[in-house]
Amino acid sequence: MSTLKGRTGAGAPAQTRGKTTVADGVVAKIVGMAAREVPGIHNLGGGVARAFGAVRDRVPGGSGGVTQGVKVEVGQRQAAVDLDIVVEYGVAIVDVAGDVRSNVINAVERMTGLEVVEVNIAVGDVRLPDEEESEPDEDRVR
Question: What CATH number has the domain bearing residue 120?
Fold first, then answer.
């Protein structure tokens, strides 16, 4: 969790009096949304992680969704990000990874004021044009 401190005292502007705390989960959601905005990204998370995440999303109170495939470390002033991505077949992976890094860094820094020190990307799968999304069996988990 990050705490952003402002100036205090009677002479300080009102918006800087006090502190703002940004939870790790908030940063993870920003990262997940920013990564998904990039053309060529099919999904986040690897094959097994995606299937597990789909089951977890169906369980009441399950976490997953936008933060699936996202891991963040948030300090007082900095954040580091690890992402597992699935790209569309035919895209230049190096270019897509660069675009994801740029979009994630810009979104996190703009929205939180934290400095993003690194965005590590692991490409876990390529989505082929004729592949269908594998959904977990509806009857297995209730």
Answer: 3.30.70.1350
